[in-house]
Here is the input.
Amino acid sequence: MTDSIDIRSLNKGKVQPARTATPDRDQGRIWAVLNKDIQLFGKGLPDKIKESFYLELSVLLSAGVDIRGSLELVKNEQLKKKHRQIFEGITRQIVGGSTLSSAMKDNGLFTPYEYFSVQIGEETGKLITVLNELAVYYKKKIDQQRQIIGALTYPVLVLLVAGMAVAFMMAYVVPMFADVLKRFGGELPFITRMVMHVSNLFKHYSLLFLLLLGGLITIMVSQRKKTWFRNYASQLVLRIPVIGELIRKIYLARFANTMSLLIGSRIPMLQSVELVSKMVSFYPIESTLPKVAVEIMSGHALHQSLASHTIYPPKMISLIKVGEEVNQLDLFFSKVSNQYSGEVEHRTNILSKFLEPLIIVVLGLVVGVILIAMYLPLFKLGQSV
Here is the structure.
């Protein structure tokens, strides 16, 4: 199959029956993945590629295309050679008699959450549903990333440009004015003396500042995976006004969305919590889930176990409690995820609209103070002449 086909133009038709796993599969191996260290998103395969893969594969299977033909079409859609090779390897394993979940596992670029969910879909005959859920999961993740990037891109660019402009003024413009003003003698205004003092500090200690900044970045990069650093860094982030609460809700939304998908796939509660604890990369949530799993094993309900940790808000605990009582926990986790995702979108829009004028005003004041400080002595000199 060599011709490229626009798979989005396919209409949904007869559903292709899902491929089932062999009956003699070792069930212990199914749950063994829960005890392995995993990374939420595999290296070398971007989130956008995974979202398109799951979405397009579900559309093709729904249209009646077999699994091999679907993978061939997905492979031909890839623009990069390395991505085509990944899906070509999966296709070869499918042709050799492997299941899709086994091929994804052997590939090494998919997390246990992904191929384990696909395996559940194969064994229950709900592969298309699972693929759709995985596509939605990645779409929400990508949307959240775009919201944050969109809200912070303009302010960060403005800060960088303005920072370089202020640094240039302090390093070159202010010293030029200082030399001129010193020739006139007399006492300079207070604001002028302060700006000149800051300029001297900047000129003499800028190299030391850059070295300290480089050392700080080096420590952050080298220690970013250490438990102590992740703990203190996350606590510091949570204490930042507005930003801390926004970050908290982003990860709570991911936690709730993942729990919804796992429980909806009929994975037992304990195994779902254990798996999520290795998938959520935010330390305040990640560190609580092993304790939650122990409490569940001791007979506590999920909402009771979560309530003992302050990272989970009372409103979320109440919804989870109702979900347990009506035996629709996956539905209520989905509602929590949608609610927090909506709040994140709303707050990022407000943050973006608030930061842009605030940064412009603050930087305008800084530049204005520097200019006034430099020209004020000249104005006074002109009045005295």
Q: What stands out?
A: The two ends are 89 Å apart (CA to CA). The chain has two domains: 7-125, 134-385. Residues 1-43 have pLDDT under 50 and may be disordered.
